[in-house]
Design goal:
heterodimer, A: mainly alpha, B: 258 residues, alpha/beta, Rossmann fold, 9 helices, 10 strands
């Protein structure tokens, strides 16, 4: 029985520790962003890796999400004779919710896992220790470009996702199912307000930060991860857990952000 | 002991779970000298170096570098102390997504405002000192183990550090390659005059480079002696170590008296 309580204590302490570690990690990365030297080239490189290389996935998923919204929306709205509002339904669902969330989930799978694995490998092969010993701040050198890139890339990717999704909805709703073309775009024009776009962009910005934070901190602390094992196995497990945690956090944060921004 | 101590470990204790690795380790390393830390595998030699580098903090005791307790100073101050360090890691710890040239150039690019052209000259000079030519554009995965160590050494020395740490510089290399590492070490130290701390298994060869030898046994530094004194020591642990690793090369005075 005592052993049981010991175990609970041990696990709780571990998670409190981990939360503290990750908080301090974010704090240092934030502070380091404002410390000179300011280098643009690493930020551009990371924006390319996180953003540009994710474009294809975003285009693909954005188009199909819009298409399925068009399909479902048209069928549902037609029952009420409201298929003229199809454009509005597709655009608002994409801009306010699906765009930021799905784009973030896609980026987590594509770039978040890569960030975690890269930093995890740097940790286990002592490259981060080497940076520390060379008096080069790993937060400034490795994390800051990724954080800035995440914050730049996610809103842009989300915007692409939204636009492609709206055209996907148009393709199915108007092109295939025969909804009115003019009504599709005019309903978007009438119902989408700046507040909706603002909400989507704020969400995507927060998700960008969240993905880079969780994935890089998980990789950075791979050696302290409970039950992750060592070496390549440790990195692979920690990468999986980083992707899972990021995805779950995106959905949880989405709820809280929506309740604040709505 | 000649030279003032630049690094001091005072009663350092460290455990990893149930494993009590350092049990009150005391060590004082003299400036400008080469100190070799020897001992069996898994006795905590590399742990001593990691303590000095500030990568691990002791459970008890102090680690003083230039008189400052590195576990009780601000991060910025620790970084300041680390600007004096050069480290050759056991596995070289080269940045595997960067070329040989970029690896060596990194400290110059990140820590100084040296123009790129000058960086090129300095890096090429350091690589030449390590007998590496024509591999500037290769990646660490494309070069041999011995070359990796030499690139690691070039990177460690590129900012002319005052203290250089070598964690098993020749482990895993054949005799010719390890001799080569010793040669470049000897050449670079003669030129740059840094304090060297070497963790090594390569006894007795490493004794030729050492000014002082420290034996770590059972979590405690047994003694800090010149190689000659070390081989003649009456300390039973040191005597036993000398005999197992190199046979009885010298007969100690006490033995002669017997």
């Amino acid at each position: 029985m005592l052993r049981f309580f010991e175990k609970i204590g041990e696990v709780s302490l571990y998670y409190v520790n981990q939360a503290g570690r990750m908080g301090i990690f974010l704090f240092y990365s934030f502070i380091s962003t404002f410390k000179p030297p300011y280098k643009i080239a690493p930020i551009i490189k990371q924006t390319y890796i996180i953003g540009t290389l994710s474009i294809f996935v975003i285009l693909f998923t954005g188009a199909f999400t819009g298409m399925v919204l068009g399909l479902q929306g048209h069928n549902t709205l037609r029952k009420f004779g409201a298929d003229g509002l199809l454009g509005s339904a597709v655009a608002l669902s994409l801009i306010r919710e699906l765009g930021p969330v799905l784009a973030a989930l896609m980026v987590t799978g594509r770039a978040g896992s890569a960030i975690c694995a890269e930093i995890g490998i740097m940790r286990i092969s002592e490259q981060i220790d080497a940076l520390d010993c060379m008096a080069i701040d790993p937060h400034k050198y490795i994390m800051v470009p990724k954080f800035v890139a995440g914050i730049i890339a996610l809103p842009l990717l989300t915007s692409i996702f939204d636009v492609v999704g709206i055209f996907g909805g148009y393709l199915v709703g108007v092109g295939l199912l025969g909804a009115n073309e003019g009504a599709y775009f005019s309903s978007i024009y009438k119902t989408v307000e700046f507040k909706d776009i603002y909400m989507g962009l704020v969400k995507s910005l927060c998700f960008g930060l969240l993905i880079v934070w969780i994935c890089s901190a998980k990789g950075y602390f791979v050696h302290l991860e409970r039950g992750a094992g060592f070496g390549a196995e440790g990195v692979s497990r920690v990468t999986t857990s980083a992707v899972v945690l990021s995805s779950v956090s995106i959905l949880v944060f989405d709820f809280f952000l929506t309740s604040v921004l709505i | 002991m000649n030279g003032k101590p630049v690094i001091q470990l005072v009663d350092v204790e460290k455990s990893f779970g149930p494993q009590h690795v350092l049990r009150g380790t005391n060590l004082s390393i003299s400036e400008g000298k080469t100190t070799v830390i020897v001992g069996g595998s898994g006795t905590g030699k590399s742990i001593i170096i990691k303590h000095i580098l500030g990568l691990i903090s002791p459970d008890r005791g102090k680690v003083l570098v230039y008189g400052k307790d590195i576990n009780n100073i601000r991060k910025k101050e620790l970084r300041g102390i680390r600007t004096n360090f050069g480290v050759l890691f056991q596995n070289s710890a080269l940045f595997d997504s960067m070329t040989v040239f970029d690896n060596v150039a990194l400290p110059l690019r990140e820590r100084t405002k040296t123009p790129e052209k000058e960086i090129g000259d300095i890096v090429n000079e350091k690589l030449a000192l390590m007998d590496i030519k024509g591999s500037n554009e290769k990646y660490p995965a494309q070069i041999s183990g011995g070359m990796k160590k030499r690139v690691g050494l070039a990177r460690a020395l590129v900012l002319n550090p005052k203290i250089v740490f070598f964690d098993e510089p020749t482990t895993g290399l054949d005799v010719a390659k390890s001799n080569e590492i010793y040669r470049v070490f000897f050449r670079s130290q003669a030129r740059l005059g840094y304090t060297a701390v070497i963790v090594s298994h390569d006894v007795p060869k490493i004794f030729k480079l050492a000014d002082y030898v420290a034996l770590l046994y059972n979590g405690v530094v047994q003694d800090y002696l010149t190689p000659e004194e070390f081989q003649l020591s009456d300390n039973p642990v040191i005597k036993d170590f000398v005999e197992t690793t190199m046979g009885t090369l010298y007969s100690s005075k006490s033995m002669e008296g017997e």
